[in-house]
Design a protein that fits this description.
Helix content is 2%, strand content 37%. It has 421 residues and is mainly beta. The chain has a domain of 205 residues.
Length: 421
């Protein structure tokens, strides 16, 4: 039997997920200066002239495109100049339809100084069809929310930043945001689907939303895979809340700063000071995470939670209260923990102390480092511009086996994912 470990060759098997149609019909040029022949002066005019599968090509100018958009076709919005972005000021409303795909690439939604109107991207209504409406954000910067708390959408964001994210199904990778809420799908949608949340950073700075939380997962119809994220906040709030579902919570760094006890993995209802809340009656696996309260007068408690849940090989800083007897191989430190600004442990406690199994190995084929820097979904895969991975190619997401067993030595390999140059 031959064992192949192919993590180092992942990029060879990446295929783009983002195709608007089998054949792109036309490019619709948008230019608000009037200098480009045959162009439309506004994005709304371009949408009106477009048909499903067209590409809206937007020329960047010294003026942002101020408009209120209604997108009711399968379209791709992209900057006319490679590697640059296009600026938009206003609200974008997405009208769903079964199988509709809308992609925004290199978009910046801006806010003018002294103006407080709510800009952002919003779902206009439930999708009533049999297949989801897909909305993609790639390399976007949005000074406002992405609000998709309606049925029948799939929201995907790669290497983007925005305020608050509300959605029910999708994939969020390598992005920055204040807060995230994954809401309940209707039973006709999403049963058995998986929400993927990898390599992101959240940083809440204010109260006012449900559970006052940095990350809330409440979609019991879906499974989840939450890996290598840095959840942190500056006030006495919940950081992560995951309820009544199946999934993995792996290699995350979760940081609180409360003078009270921060509860990790607890069923304590409506507790005000949660670092991470994994409550449910189904299967939850919390492995290789770092839970830490930076406040020297506070604590971090590992409470009981229901069902066939496991919390093993995690690192807890400033621990208080009792812990579940069925959990094992966790490390408890009544003092400070050391990691960098992205939640990565490079040495000391937590380094090479995660789960010893081969599927959890770091990308350098050594034992798992706890926190965001460890495992096959390491932070540096998704943030090549960080100090941890200067100059590396960016790999957004790959669905690929970490081990392949063969009796003959010849194994066909199939994978899917996203690779952006």
């Amino acid at each position: 039997m031959i064992l192949f470990n192919i993590r180092k060759a992942l990029v060879c098997f990446a295929f783009s997920l983002f195709t608007v149609g089998a054949l792109r019909a036309a490019d619709i040029n948008i230019d608000n200066t009037g200098e480009i022949p045959g162009s439309y002066p506004t994005i709304s005019a371009g949408i009106a002239a477009a048909t499903d599968g067209d590409r809206i090509v937007i020329y960047p100018t010294i003026y942002d495109y101020k408009d209120s958009l209604v997108v009711n076709k399968s379209l791709e919005f992209i900057c006319a100049q490679n590697g640059q972005s296009w600026e938009f000021y206003g609200v974008i409303n997405i009208v769903p339809a079964p199988g509709r795909t809308i992609s925004f690439i290199g978009m910046q939604i801006v806010r003018h100084m002294g103006e407080w109107s709510v800009n952002g991207v919003f779902a206009s209504q439930n999708n009533v069809g049999g297949t989801r409406c897909v909305v993609n954000f790639i390399d976007c910067s949005i000074y406002g929310p992405l609000a998709f708390n309606l049925d029948g959408f799939e929201v995907n964001a790669f290497y983007s930043s925005f305020w608050n994210l509300e959605f029910r199904m999708g994939t969020i990778v390598g992005s920055y945001m204040d807060r995230v809420f994954v809401y309940e799908d209707s039973p006709v949608w999403g049963v058995g689907d998986t929400v993927i949340f990898i390599g992101n950073k959240t940083s809440q700075t204010s109260w006012g939303l449900p559970f006052a939380a940095n990350f809330v997962f409440k979609n019991s119809n879906a499974t989840y895979f939450i890996a290598n994220n840095f959840f942190r906040y500056n006030l006495f709030v919940d950081t992560a809340y995951v309820v009544d579902t199946n999934g993995w919570f792996i290699n995350n760094t979760v940081e609180g700063s409360s003078s009270m006890t921060n509860w990790a993995c607890t069923t304590k209802v409506n507790h005000r000071y949660n670092v991470v809340w994994l409550e449910g009656v189904k299967n939850t696996h919390a492995v290789n995470n770092v839970f830490y309260n930076t406040n020297g007068s506070g604590g971090c408690a590992l409470g009981n939670f229901q069902g066939q849940n496991r919390a093993n090989y995690n690192l807890f800083g400033r621990i208080s209260y009792n812990h579940h007897n069925g959990w094992r191989d966790n490390i408890y430190v009544n003092g400070s923990l050391s990691y960098d600004g992205n939640g990565i442990i490079s040495s000391g406690t937590g380094h090479n102390q995660g789960h010893p199994g081969i599927p959890f190995y770091d990308i350098d084929i050594t034992r798992n480092n706890m926190g965001t820097g460890g495992g096959p979904f390491a932070w540096s895969n998704y943030h090549p511009d960080s100090q941890n991975a200067p100059g590396r190619a960016r790999i957004y997401l790959l669905d690929i086996k970490s081990q392949i067993y063969s009796l003959t030595g010849s194994v066909p390999v199939k994978a899917s994912g996203v690779h952006m140059k």
